[in-house]
Amino acid sequence: MISSYIKGVHAVSLEAAQKIAGALDVSLWVLLNGEALPVTALDMTEKERRLIGEYRRLTGSEREAVDHVIQVYNERKKERTGG
Predict the structure, then answer these.
(1) Do residue 27 and residue 48 come from a single domain?
(2) How many Å apart are CA 38 and CA 6, to the nearest integer?
(3) Is residue 46 located within the same domain as residue 18?
């Protein structure tokens, strides 16, 4: 079915495009345009803005510690999910 979209035989419906984007774990924008939109403060939740503000107030070594925790978390998540 995807080959018919690639070949231009069929047009992709919005619903199908959303499902494909979900299966690929990318946004619909990325699927359609090939690149992500830059994230702006308007795209963030209040909690995300607060966390970024707190992160920016950390010292260099404190930021490194937070970065390390996130890196370890992501590595373990990949190991669990096989991704």
Answers:
(1) no
(2) 27
(3) no
User: Are the C-beta atoms of 35 and 50 separated by less than 8 Å?
Assistant: no
The torsion region of residue 59 among left (phi > 0), alpha (psi -120 to 50) and beta comes to: beta
**Residues 52 and 22 grouped into a single domain:** no
How many domains does the chain contain in total? 2
* pLDDT tens digits for range 30-77: 888 887 777 776 677 889 889 999 999 999 999 999 999 999 999 999
Taking the model in full, what pTM does it have? 0.49
Give the structural domain span for 67: 41-81
Which amino acid makes up residue 22? G
Amino acid symbol at 34: G
Ramachandran sector of residue 38 (left: φ over 0; alpha: ψ -120 to 50; beta: rest): beta
Contacts of 52 (CB under 8 A, 6+ apart): 44
Q: By C-alpha distance, which of 83, 55, 81 is closest to 69?
A: 55
